[in-house]
Amino acid sequence: MRKTDQTLLEQMRITDFELEHRKALFALSAEDIRLLVAVKPEIEREVDSLVERFYELQTSVPEIALLIGDSDTLGRLRNAQRRYVIDLFSGFYDIEYVNNRLRIGLVHKRIGVEPKLYLSAIYTLKHLLIEFIHQLLPDEKSKFLTVSALEKLLMFDVALVFETYIRSLISEIEISREKSEQYAHALEEKVRERTLQLEKQSRTDPLTGLLNMRHLNETLTYVLRGAARRSEPVTVVYIDVNDFKTINDTKGHQRGDEVLCNVANAIQGITRIEDHCFRYGGDEFCIIMSNCTATQAENICQMRLLAELHSREKELTLSVGYAQTGPSEYVSPEVLIRQADESMYIAKHAFKMNQR
Fold first, then answer.
1. Are the C-beta atoms of 308 and 270 separated by less than 8 Å?
2. What is the domain extent for residue 85?
3. Is residue 91 a contact partner of residue 24, using CB atoms and an 8 Å limit?
4. Is pLDDT at 197 greater than 70 in this prediction?
């Protein structure tokens, strides 16, 4: 349940039974209440002068005067204090009385009244009232007992005020902690996302979006280990763009970059999720094809890759080499890449011979 759906009494779990228990803790008896009620008529007659004197003393303290701020606020405080003084001697210290004391603690916390200022105000009020009681009552015993009853009630009130004050302070701390935790979580999430972005950037060629060559050997090692456990073939496809230097020299590097991106898109268009596509450097590309023979890889590249590429670059041609390892024996990643590179150069040589 939200706090806004509960009264202060409900939040503090103060019932009639709890109220009586608190009175007992402070030894506030029926006789004490009778003594306070007995001086009520005189208190009511002098309440305005008592409140006036109280605020003369309060506003002489710079910190308190700064908190009060203006005459309108001072007027409202005088009215509230007048009601409080009368309530002290009313004899009705019930749930409504308790609720008003709880609200005082909440309000004091919200407007920033420090505990020392509140306690000094209670101290000032107590001494003004004690002084008045001493002038009012001629009998020393009556004076002592009435002052004792007043002190019990004031302590009863202070405990209520500080409970809500402290509760409000704890709530602020909890809210601040929750905000800090949320901020820390959001920061961790941003760091995690940024770390993933940086990791992706470190593994990715910025132009084509394919994996870069720095992670080729690492990835191929991982794929070969998995293939060896499952006794599956692995094929490396090595691709080179024919006459790429001529394109760069005659049509410019921007056009060359466009060609490389189109080749990369074509490669991504024909490969499977389990395949790994790399820009090896310059105009050279590699594909690691898991559970795929060289013959299967060649069929894919000769049919689907060329068709995918020609939908983007009609006149572009590629030289492609293939190297397979497994499923019975496996060569090292370095050897497999070199074999695919050598196969590509054979295809490149054939392409140049055909151009003559």
1. yes
2. 3-181
3. no
4. no
188 burial (CB, 10 Å; 0-12 / 13-18 / 19+) is: exposed
pLDDT tens readout for residues 38-61? 999 999 999 999 999 999 998 998
Per-residue pLDDT of 25-35, as tens digits, reads 999 999 999 99
Any idea what DSSP says for residue 316? Answer: -
**Which string of DSSP letters, residue by residue, matches 18-62?**
HHHHHHHHTT--HHHHHHHHHTHHHHHHHHHHHHHHHHHHHHTSH
Q: Is residue 205 part of a domain?
A: no
Segment (H or E) for 72: helix 71-88
Give pTM, 2 decimals. 0.52
User: Strand, coil or helix: what is 325?
Assistant: strand
pLDDT digit string (tens) for 210-226? Answer: 988 888 888 999 999 99
Burial class (CB in 10 A: 0-12, 13-18, 19+), 337: buried
pLDDT in tens, 126-177: 999 999 999 999 889 999 999 999 999 999 988 888 888 777 777 778 888 8
Q: Are residue 221 and residue 335 in the same domain, yes or no?
A: yes
- Residue 57, classified by CB atoms within 10 Å of its CB into exposed (0-12), middle (13-18) or buried (19+), is middle
CATH number at residue 275: 3.30.70.270
Establish if 200 belongs to a structural domain. Answer: no
Same domain, 350 and 235: yes
CATH label of the domain that carries residue 88: 1.10.490.10
What total number of domains does the chain contain?
A: 2
Token reading at 263 = 């080749």
Say how far apart CA 4 and CA 8 lie, in whole Å: 9
279 within a domain of the structure (yes/no): yes
Q: Which two tokens stand for residue 312?
A: 């983007």
Q: Considering 181, 200, 222, which residue would you say is the last residue of a domain?
A: 181
Residues 137 and 239 in one domain: no
Of 275-284, 307-316, 338-347, the range with the lowest mean pLDDT is 307-316
Residue 262 domain flag: yes
Instruction: Specify whether 13 is located in the same domain as 150.
Output: yes
